Amino acid sequence: MSERTDPMKEAASNYLDACRSQFDNGVALVNALVGAAERIRAFQMEAVREAQAKYAEVSGQFTQASSVQDVMALEGAFIKDYSAGVVSYSTRLGEILQQTQGEIAGILDKQRSETLEQASLSAKAPASFYAAPEQLISVMQTAFDAARGANEAFVKAIAGMHPPAAKKKPAKSAAAHPRA
To answer: Does the predicted TM-score (pTM) go above 0.70?
Structure first.
């Protein structure tokens, strides 16, 4: 009996490790996307500040223009700077997205490696493992029950940190209590 139990526990442990690994990879993916959003937002704020400063500078130069030729020269310089800014902005945005794509590819590659590793562990399971699926089901049920209990304890702990607001008694309406 213990020969069958050990492979069952090992299989259950491998399964839980795979679940943890997948959860960790999911969190890493979310973190990569949030990090990209933060980098993009910071870059956009920097671009807005630079555009505002350039606009203020050009506005001041326009007020100093004394001829149509001066205005046209300022407009040409502004368009040239604007075009260079668009190219710079697009390039930097592409770099941020490429960095994020690299991070995501690394996470997915790690997940693929872990999946292949888990598959090789499953392939090495003894024949006795497949002969007693009810034992695996029992071990997996125990693992799920333990995970559910841990989750419930966590939820209770969080709820205890932030108790729900006290319920207020509804105000009695005048129609409910007619005066005699």
So the answer is: no
**pLDDT, averaged across the chain:** 78
Which residue is associated with the tokens 């205005």?
Answer: 71
Q: Which two tokens stand for residue 141?
A: 């049920």
* Domain range for 17: 2-161
- What confidence category does residue 1 fall into, taking pLDDT thresholds of 50, 70 and 90? very low
CA distance 21 to 23: 5
Q: Is residue 145 part of a domain?
A: yes
Angle between helices 2-64 and 68-123 in degrees, nearest 10? 180
Q: Is pLDDT of 26 > 90?
A: no
**Within a domain: 168:** no
Domain count, the chain: 1
Residue 175 in any domain: the answer is: no
